[in-house]
Amino acid sequence: MSRINGFIGRRHFLRLAGASGLAVAAGGGSLIAAKENVIADAESINLNPVNPQQALQLLLDGNQRFVNKKPIYPHQSQQWLQSIAKAQYPFAAILGCADSRVPAEIIFDQGLGDLFVVRVAGNVASDMAIASLEYATSVLDTRLIVVLGHEKCGAVAASVKNEALPGKMNHFVEKIKPALAKLDQTNNNFYHAAIIANIQYQAEKLQQNSKILKQLINKSQIKIVKAIYDIDTGKVATIS
Ligand SMILES: [Zn+2]
Predict the structure, then answer these.
(1) Which domains does the chain have, with CATH numbers?
(2) Fewer CB atoms inside 10 A, N or C side of the chain?
(3) Residue 211 has pLDDT above 80, yes or no
(4) Distance, CA 195 to ligand 1 centroid (Å)?
(5) Residue 35, exposed/middle/buried by CB under 10 A (0-12, 13-18, 19+)?
(6) Count of CB atoms situated within 10 Å of the CB of 221
(7) Distance in Å, CA 99 to ligand 1 centroid
(8) CA of 191 to the centre of ligand 1 (A)
(9) Cα-trace Rg, the chain
């Protein structure tokens, strides 16, 4: 099925805006016009639309190439750069950790315009992260969100230790701690269990705190997948 990315994206966006109570009251026409004008990166035809399952397969195939040390470094030529300058059609969005060892485009062997990546310590589903993912899915028509945690995550480790951190760093600790509340403290592999629990918790938060994402999920227009990255092997594995 071919789709016009920008067109459907904008319609989608406006319909969702109405459902969220953002819509047009008296004089709201100019509000819509303003929204239309800011969407400058979703203008033309998406020549390669994918459904959520196909998007996941593209990611897993790319990760397999990375693990096998046979990356093809797609979509990184100067010609490709110029071809996507007018519009973007990222086939997947990633909510991942800011950890320098987990760069999404590299570990999934993807290129320019392929992934809409939101990275923050502990892959926390903050309001800004959710806003970004709402944009990717409802405006750019990205059909898959992957919540990607990783082994040896420092943000989760800090939350497990539950010690006060200076500056703003307690912010992410506080956002991760609720994920650990139900874990068995005697578990020998507590750190790993905490990382898994945090991925599940943040994925749940995306739906709980976003009417837009929840609505798209209920209509089967997007899918949220949870996954963990192994720092030692480079392997990404989906989790339930
Ligand atoms: Zn991390």
Answers:
(1) 48-239 (3.40.1050.10)
(2) N
(3) yes
(4) 9
(5) middle
(6) 15
(7) 5
(8) 12
(9) 19
